[in-house]
Amino acid sequence: MRESESVIIDEQFNISTRTYYSILHLKTADLFSNKAKEIEGKYEGEFDLVLTSELNSYVTSVILSSVAFLEANINETLSDIFEGNSHFRSEIDKDKQEQLRKLWHLGIPRTASYSVLNKYETTLVLLVNKKLDKGCSPIQDILQLIKLRNALIHFEPEWKSWTESNNDKDKFFKALNGKFELNPFFSKEEPFFPQRCLGAGCAEWAVINSLKFVDEFCNLSGLKPLYGELRDKILIKNKG
Hints:
The chain has 240 residues and is mainly α. It has helices spanning 21-41, 49-83, 94-105, 116-128, 139-153, 173-176, 192-196, 200-221, 229-238; strands at 5-9, 15-19. The chain has one domain (22-238).
């Protein structure tokens, strides 16, 4: 069985398949994060438009895929509970499973009106009566990652001055500066977002903190993660 799918064969020999796309989103984010590192490894001290465009493409893909991983993961978790696919979630209290099923049937927290973090927090409250600590890492990092994703999806161009002193006026500078290595293709005088921010360091930060966030959610809720050995391979490779 491929790690992204479950297969059921019933007595009439009908075959059903169930894809877990969160794993594919995670693999995509990890793949493009590695590609971003390769591009920066080719940097020789001079600006290169071709390499810069490739790097931006990879890093943008990592950010989008990392947040997609987060949302797909919680949707898959709740769908499994709703449909009774408890082959790896049998440790959940039966009454709490039933509560989650009823709410999921009513669209809570199922629809797009619920943010990614709302879905995780609602699940935590129902299962173990706990809320996310939004003042700590990795949740603070995930909040910034989602804001970064939103800024890229709903991108609006802005005029920005080329002076180092103007970077502290950037909407992401205070929150993200110092969290990862910046894009070496741009000087410190150039705008923080999107130029200096979107580099291999940002890509690695997105992947690692997405995994750490889901790990923490699983530890708090008692649920087992879907991504298995893939998590360890990614974190060991990135020394997370």
